[in-house]
Amino acid sequence: QSPMFDPRPAALIGIRYIHFTIQRGQQSDTNQVGLKPGPFTMDSPDVRKCSLSELRHVFPGCSSHEELYKLSINETDLFWGTLARLRLRWNRDFERVSDCNMEKGSFRWFVGGQLNVSVNCVDRHKEKDPSRVALIWEKDEPGQEERVTYGELYTLMNRVSNVLKSHGVRKGDRVAIYMPPCPLAVASMLACARIGAVHSVVFAGFSAEALASRINDAEAKVVITADQGVRGGKLIELKKTVVTAVEKCPSVQAILVAKRTGNPVISSPLDIDLDEAILKESGECEPAVLDSEDLLFMLYTSGSTGNPKGIVHSQAGYLLYASLTHSLVFDCKEGDIFGCVADIGWITGHSYVVYGPLANGVTTLLFESTPTYPNPGRYWETVQRLKINQLYAAPTAIRLLLKYGDEHVEKYDLSSLRTLGSVGEPINVEAWHWYNKVVGKEKCVVVDTWWQTETGGICISPTPSAPGSEILPGMPMRPMYGIWPAILGEKGEELKGNDVTGALCLKKPWPGMARTIYGAHSRFLETYYRPFNGFYFTGDGAVRHSNGYYQITGRMDDVINVTGHRLGTAEVENALVLWHMLNPIEINTDDQLFVPQDQHPSVAESAVVGYPCSDKGEGVYAYVTLKDGFPADTKTESELRGIVRLKIAAYAIPDVIQICPSLPKTRSGKIMRRILRKVAADETDNLGDISTLADPTVVEDLVTRHRTLK
Ligand code: WT7
Fold it and tell me: What keywords would UniProt list here (predicted)?
């Protein structure tokens, strides 16, 4: 007896559905739609079976994209249950497609199912053709790329799995990975997945402080890193950062160090030479059989308050969502070379460098360099040389390259490109047109994709839509299958109809959604499910235009988006105010700054806001008040910048530091950020009501000082 699908709504909307009768250990489907009745570990022999036209074949009652979308919303379990069986290899079939409760923030997908993500990403493609290329490692110096086949990735992954096991890593243990994109980083992620460990990749641009706080929050047992990184012709001291961080991390029992440059670097008693350890281990490792809802990974992201939160994703739902969106949004098929230039330290790298493309058996790019190294033609030269079919990049990079001029693009043959994707922040119309015309020659499908670390995969994007459907510049437009957006007003009411602006929420659970914040489920509930009861609150504002399309207006909370990186203003404020709590470690910044431990803290208070910035999307604007006796000079300013780099990362460094005698506060002592945002944005004629301020004269002074900074 299968309680899985309730046929009523399907019948109501006139859609024929596939009826599965599930018995433990076997599956038979009484469908009329050509799904091969297979063994119960049903493994689609050809993952291309998920283009839009194939989807129509899977759901034969649906002849259009709109009908498929309706089905995905009205018949959620039917939709996802069918695709989960088609697209993934299971060790045990699931009993229930979903068991979700928005009020409790409890989400379970494919309940009772068992599988292994690494088997889905590697083994099944290697079985078919071990010589197919899985990874192209595009190293910093152009023309030195290395290819790794599915067969080689299989062996590498298994060897790393065995190394982890021999260092005591067991199911559920956390492993921190502090590495730029490279085959060993991917193999390490997959190795964790293979043995059921939980990876936490930390962007290799984060400082030792930031790394340590993430390792400690996760209580990671092992850290995997490399001696040095190479980016834009510069060396990055990965190992040194890890050693500094791990001094404050009692949970770490081993540091696995891979060789990237081979230069001598600082050592630690916890070091294990990863390249050597790998050679001692077997290239076979039995995959752990994991439950759908076991943890796959955690990834830290900034929120409006406090420290970054460890967003948790689980096995089956995440993989299904990443792989389906990857094939549908980008029209990516077997044989394609998919080029996502994001770092693996962000969710884009997880879903669209590693898990989505590998689950789909395509060749995926690992881009180690920058958009402008050795010159602003780097992306385009790489596309030509590697014959990349889909390019996925950030608006910041597109805006930057646009400024360098078309000649850097026109030199190269970009005819391999079919889809151009954009992600991370709103893409302005000018940049969109340039991407479409100069890069895509108006022959590519350009997709602005909206999503978040928390959503696991793309949620709003022009595609999938019927081929030839209109695509408008500068907005992600259409919800993905299973995604039901809602716009909510100030009083928490849902704004129905079109031409409405408000808080962007999602009304229905989807398989790729975050399951919790690691170790902080109540914070998870408060952040995402309490603001609007019964909805997932994204933190973003959006417009639903008169044509029904969605456009993102930006964050509604104290999170800002700097060069496509998410940054909590509270984190910067804490770095500025708490700088005296640092250990006396060497502060080695470009400014040659050194702050001894016993130096008095000079900052009394700080308030950080974002302001519109044409290059970076948003810039970081820090208002700072100093304690008595500390001079407001350029030395203080450069020390403050150094401290932010030291405590967070280079991208978080304030663009503007305005030292002022006091901040605008209400009578109850609350800083009025609204005013600070307006001043930073130069909107000083329109400051709104300032009568509730304890001292309204503060504002005039703020504005005057702001003007002198320009
Ligand atoms: C925030 C999520 C999703 C991968 C990269 C960022 C902003 C993301 C878009 C877009 C407008 C966008 C939102 C969102 N954002 N994509 N296409 N248009 N804004 O992931 O670090 O979790 O940041 O990035 O504000 O909430 P993230």
Answer: ATP-binding, Ligase, Nucleotide-binding
